[in-house]
Amino acid sequence: VDRAFLRSARGALKIARTLVALVTLLCFVASGAHEAYTALAGMETVITVLFLLLYLLRLDARIRCLFWPLADIFNSVIAALFLLVVCLFAIIIKTNKGTLAGGVLGLILLVLCLVDAVLLCKKISLDKARGRSAPAK
């Protein structure tokens, strides 16, 4: 277990994303909101937990078939786009207070996704080797 990741800014951000996504999911479920709202919040919760476990257990270093930070950036950007659309609909329609609260929390989650994507973009260096040996001269 990588305890340093939990103390890092990226680790705290992943935990915050997970918690906000979970609370958003609970708001949508409790309010009886449209299934699309609930599905998006549920998928975001599960995917964020999986990425958190991936980095926490250092599986990204063991499973090298995919460049995980880039996959995480794509996840964050796509999630932000979906959250923008769905949460704006939830806020505009606001069938009840639970849907409105879920929409507002979803917009907060959108900001967390964008901050996560920016932090990951700063971390990635595409010209750096990905842990493989240097090419022969």
TrEMBL record:
<dbReference type="InterPro" id="IPR008253">
    <property type="entry name" value="Marvel"/>
</dbReference>
<feature type="transmembrane region" description="Helical">
    <location>
        <begin position="12"/>
        <end position="31"/>
    </location>
</feature>
<keyword id="KW-1133">Transmembrane helix</keyword>
<feature type="transmembrane region" description="Helical">
    <location>
        <begin position="69"/>
        <end position="93"/>
    </location>
</feature>
<protein>
    <submittedName>
        <fullName>CKLF factor</fullName>
    </submittedName>
</protein>
<dbReference type="InterPro" id="IPR050578">
    <property type="entry name" value="MARVEL-CKLF_proteins"/>
</dbReference>
<keyword id="KW-0472">Membrane</keyword>
<feature type="transmembrane region" description="Helical">
    <location>
        <begin position="99"/>
        <end position="121"/>
    </location>
</feature>
<keyword id="KW-0812">Transmembrane</keyword>
<feature type="domain" description="MARVEL">
    <location>
        <begin position="5"/>
        <end position="125"/>
    </location>
</feature>
<dbReference type="GO" id="GO:0016020">
    <property type="term" value="C:membrane"/>
</dbReference>
<feature type="transmembrane region" description="Helical">
    <location>
        <begin position="37"/>
        <end position="57"/>
    </location>
</feature>
<dbReference type="Pfam" id="PF01284">
    <property type="entry name" value="MARVEL"/>
</dbReference>
